[in-house]
Design brief:
The chain has 305 residues and is α+β, with helices and mostly antiparallel strands. The chain folds into 3 domains: 73 residues, no CATH class; 42 residues, no CATH class; 182 residues, OB fold (Dihydrolipoamide Acetyltransferase, E2P). The protein is built from 12 helices and 12 strands. Strands 7-10-11-5-4-3-12 form a 7-stranded antiparallel β-sheet. A 3-stranded antiparallel β-sheet has the order 6-8-9. It has a two-stranded antiparallel sheet with strand order 1-2. The longest helix has 22 residues. The two termini are 39 Å apart.
Length: 305
């Protein structure tokens, strides 16, 4: 909690509602642990009591009302769902006047995000040190999907990309409800001042973003096929999308081609005989002093397909 930097901290709910002019949230919207929220709540309760007694409100504090009350008086189009205010879904109005206990969407949301999916152990094959999990589909853009139930898939970045670029320290992904188009940019990962975007492997609507990976992007490099997954998607035309992806034998052929290409690239840029079938070390970017991040991305990570 409270791990936001000052410059990128989101606006407090009280600020978003227009009760206060300026206040950032450094508590990950855990209002129960926020002294500012407790203080304004006491003031608003006092103002309510005075108003019920028909006493005149005075001073700067007289204008304070609960943030939910402020928004309840706004038109529906300007009454955002609390989950949008917290930055985890696209814009959605609140039709329940912030009585979340009666909201089916809120119940669905909490069911999705409070219960963390435990992934089953994954069986791997290995190509020169690059892990290739059995039963996963791969795209030319170095993303993967694993089919789940009812048109749902889990998506992440493959081990080749993470081994090529090293440990990521920032992850940028669209919010829940965003529609992704196959072959177009889907997620962006960064390391230091460098960024790389990966295209979506399938068409679909985002149903979940891995909160653990968003908070700790190093998971994407550390465990790309398990804890480091990035999105889940609902894919209405999944059968058609799968025809464009690599699977089983074609995945091995694709990854073998990528590794061979990388061996040749390393040999050409270092004058070392890299193409000897040995195991590729992690963090190629960090170990190739004469090759820039941009060169590696341009050579090996397609912008679209």
């Amino acid at each position: 909690m409270g791990n936001h930097k000052k410059e990128d901290a989101p606006a407090c709910l009280w600020m978003q509602a227009g009760v206060v002019r300026q206040k950032k949230c450094f508590k990950e919207f855990d209002c129960s642990a926020c002294r500012f929220d407790h203080s304004l709540t006491r003031i608003c309760r006092s103002n309510q009591a005075l108003k019920s007694q028909q006493n005149a409100l005075k001073g700067k504090k007289a204008g304070f009302v609960f943030w939910k009350d402020k928004l309840r008086n706004a038109p529906l189009a300007k009454r955002p769902c609390i989950h949008h205010m917290k930055g985890v879904i696209e814009f959605k109005t609140c039709p329940k006047a912030y009585h979340c206990i009666d909201c089916e969407f809120d119940q669905y949301f909490n069911d999705q995000f409070k219960v963390y999916t435990l992934l089953q152990p994954v069986q791997f094959e290995e190509i020169s040190g690059i892990c290739l999990p059995v039963g996963y589909y791969f795209s030319p853009g170095h993303t993967w999907i694993k089919i789940e139930d009812n048109g749902m898939v889990r998506m992440g970045i493959d081990d080749f990309a993470t081994r090529l670029l090293g440990r990521f320290d920032r992850l940028s992904a669209p919010l829940m409800g965003k529609k992704l188009t196959r072959g177009k940019p889907a997620v962006t990962l960064a390391r230091g001042g460098h960024r790389v975007s990966f295209p979506a492997p399938v068409n679909g609507v985002i149903t979940e973003v891995n909160a653990h990976a968003r908070r700790s992007p190093g998971l994407v490099s550390q465990a790309p096929y398990t804890d480091g997954w990035i999105l889940t998607l609902y894919c209405p035309d999944l059968k058609e999308d799968l025809k464009t992806l690599f699977f089983m034998d074609s995945s091995k052929k694709f990854m073998t081609g990528c590794v061979t290409h990388l061996y040749g690239f390393i040999e050409a840029h270092t004058q070392l005989a890299a193409a000897d079938g040995g195991t590729l070390l992690p963090d190629i970017h960090g170990n190739l002093a004469n090759v820039s991040w941009e060169e590696l991305v341009e050579e090996f990570i397609p912008r679209a397909f």
